Amino acid sequence: ADPYMPTQLHTHCSMQEADEDGSGELDIDEFVEKLGPYLAGATGTQLNSIDDIRQLFMKIDADAGGTVDW
After folding, report:
1. Which of 10, 40, 58, 70 could share a disulfide with 6, CB 3.0–4.6 Å?
2. What is the DSSP code string of the chain?
């Protein structure tokens, strides 16, 4: 296992911590603010701006509903 890739449990806990409103989902603002900086380091990708993080959110938001859940 790659020591730099988060485990499923770690990802679940991180998302729960970032879920400020307790909805069980992250909206784009929660995602950008809480997980954006972490994801840039964890994925090894170049997320140089808020726009890059928003684009990543849109790729993860498979149903285009404006939220991601776990």
Report:
1. 10
2. --TTSPPHHHHHHHHHHH-TT-SSEEEHHHIIIIIHHHHHHHH-----SHHHHHHHHHHH-TT-SSEEE-
